[in-house]
């Protein structure tokens, strides 16, 4: 057993170590590593079993690789080299995937089959599938594109080939120069680099082991090839939470974390964004990905609201449940040591035009409050009962754009009288006035001239 800490309480560390110890023992894993980061910094790492260095031992991370591939695609979009809504066939012709768009492949709604035909691709060398036609087979589509969520390894193979085609370099080279080197992830590699864990299968009915093969996945590599460490993946999770302009902006990683696919049947607490899973558990939103390849299982989860990320890696084909253990590590830290709020400070200067807009507004008889946020955005929230709230960011033309909730993407306009005074707010055609059904206001349908009255009139 090894462990290291920076700034967590001893009781929290003990709870974290207990959780990974239970995960390793009950999951019957030769080794299991867990790590936690806060504010972009590794604050705890622990291991059970035969692990040379807890935070620095490589494990194969399987489908967490897909999230790296998604980041590379998002970079291409941000550089204007492609559009997420364009068909993949525009960039990779003759694949047979028809109208499936790049965005649909990212969120697994492109309709592609889950697996490659032929021998089990995770336990056979990639040279058996030298071309995309060998990866996709004669019928690459299992569903009509855009209709439903259907997890697809072959879809991410296509996305990796897309990156190579647009960049003009192999996928692994783009990965190294565009993500790993800028983020300082020197222990994340295409092939294992010591110290690394050996992959094992554990007999389901006896405590004996069988070594698993480690294959180069070839064209399937963008779906699951990578090796990494708990320390490197905590760094990657922190990037996915706040962004890094050297790789991808905060706005773009937020877009990745936004649910983009319908939840799977029976799984109404889970969803999928652009390359990441989005999960509601223990009252919080977790974002990340899990992964598995013969001999290894892995999970990465983070909670942006709690500023906590957790990674769990194990070297067994089945048994450990790293996704559950990692979620518990996030919960343990978030509940035991909730983050302190930022101290309140006044704005550096007062914007009198914005101040004039704050306060109560009414949509019909629904009461709302409009306030200025520290970042200069506006927030409109119901003051009582039912209502739809959103935050808004300013646009150069003087309007505002909804950022979340019902009004996400909707325009907010301040409508003024000829003398420059404020008449009302127009939010996606909904009129908000200073008084409920304000007499003489721009209320659609008008306001009864008799005004408000008692029940006996």
Can you walk through the features of this model?
By secondary structure, the chain is of the alpha+beta class. The protein is globular. It folds into 2 domains: 10-336, 3-Layer(aba) Sandwich (Beta-lactamase); 352-433, Lipocalin. It has helices at 10-27, 64-78, 102-106, 132-136, 153-167, 171-183, 221-224, 230-242, 250-257, 322-336, 352-355, and strands spanning 2-5, 31-38, 41-49, 59-60, 200-202, 209-211, 227-228, 270-272, 277-281, 284-293, 296-303, 308-314, 359-363, 366-372, 378-382, 390-394, 400-402, 411-416, 422-427, 430-432. Strands 1-3-2-12-11-10-9-8 form an 8-stranded antiparallel sheet, with helices on both faces. Strands 13-14-15-16-17-18-19-20 form an 8-stranded antiparallel sheet, with no helix packed on it. Strands 4-7 form a two-stranded antiparallel ribbon. Helix 1 runs antiparallel to helix 10 (322-336), helix 2 runs parallel beside helix 5 and helix 8 (230-242) crosses helix 9.
CATH C-level label of the largest domain:
Alpha Beta
Strand content: 15-25%
The helix content is 25-40%
The span between the termini is: 81 Å
- The residue-averaged pLDDT reads 93
CATH architecture of the largest domain: 3-Layer(aba) Sandwich
Strand numbers in spatial order across the main sheet:
1-3-2-12-11-10-9-8
Number of domains: 2
Structural class of the helices, strands and pairings?
alpha+beta
Radius of gyration in whole Å, from Cα? 26 Å
Q: What is the 3D form?
A: globular
Count every helix, treating DSSP H or I runs of 4 or more residues as helices: 11
The count of DSSP E runs of length 2 or more, i.e. the number of strands, is: 20
């Amino acid at each position: 057993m090894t462990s290291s800490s920076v700034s967590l309480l001893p009781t929290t560390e003990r709870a974290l170590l207990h959780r990974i110890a239970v995960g390793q023992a009950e999951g019957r894993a030769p080794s299991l590593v867990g790590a936690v980061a806060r504010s972009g910094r590794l604050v705890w790492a622990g291991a059970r079993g035969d692990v040379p260095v807890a935070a620095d031992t490589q494990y194969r991370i399987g489908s967490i690789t897909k999230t790296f591939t998604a980041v590379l695609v998002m970079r291409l979009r941000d550089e204007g080299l492609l559009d997420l809504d364009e068909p993949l066939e525009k960039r990779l012709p003759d694949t047979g995937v028809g109208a499936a768009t790049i965005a649909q492949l990212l969120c697994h709604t492109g309709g592609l089959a889950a697996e490659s035909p032929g021998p089990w691709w995770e336990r056979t060398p990639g040279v058996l599938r030298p071309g995309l036609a060998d990866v996709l087979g004669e019928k690459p589509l299992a569903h009509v594109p855009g209709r439903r969520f259907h997890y697809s390894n072959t879809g991410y193979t296509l996305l990796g080939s897309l990156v190579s085609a647009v960049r003009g370099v192999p996928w692994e080279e783009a990965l190294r120069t565009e993500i790993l080197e800028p983020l300082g992830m020197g222990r994340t590699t295409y092939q294992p680099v010591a110290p690394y864990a050996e992959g094992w299968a554990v007999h389901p009915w006896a405590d004996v082991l069988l070594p698993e093969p480690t294959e180069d996945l070839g064209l399937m590599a963008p779906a699951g090839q990578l090796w990494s460490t708990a320390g490197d993946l905590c760094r990657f999770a922190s990037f996915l939470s706040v962004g890094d302009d050297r790789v991808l902006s905060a706005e773009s990683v937020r877009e990745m974390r936004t649910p983009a696919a319908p939840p799977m049947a029976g799984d109404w607490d889970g969803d999928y964004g652009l390359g990441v899973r989005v999960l509601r558990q223990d009252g919080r939103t977790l974002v990340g990905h899990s992964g598995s390849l013969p001999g290894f299982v892995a999970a990465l989860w983070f909670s942006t609201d709690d500023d906590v990320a957790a990674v769990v890696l194990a070297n067994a084909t089945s048994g450990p449940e790293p996704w559950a253990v990692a979620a518990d590590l996030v919960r343990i830290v978030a509940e035991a040591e909730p983050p302190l709020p930022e101290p309140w400070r006044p704005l550096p200067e007062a914007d009198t035009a914005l101040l004039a807009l704050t306060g109560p507004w009414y949509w019909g008889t629904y009461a709302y409050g409009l306030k200025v946020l520290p970042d200069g955005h506006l927030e409109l929230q119901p003051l009582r009962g039912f209502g739809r709230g959103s935050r808004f960011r300013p646009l150069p033309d003087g309007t505002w754009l909804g950022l979340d909730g019902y009004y996400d993407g909707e325009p907010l306009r301040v409508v003024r009288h000829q003398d420059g005074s404020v008449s009302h707010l127009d939010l996606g055609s909904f009129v908000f006035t200073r008084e409920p059904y304000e007499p003489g206001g721009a209320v659609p349908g008008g306001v009864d001239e008799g005004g408000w009255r008692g029940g006996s009139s």
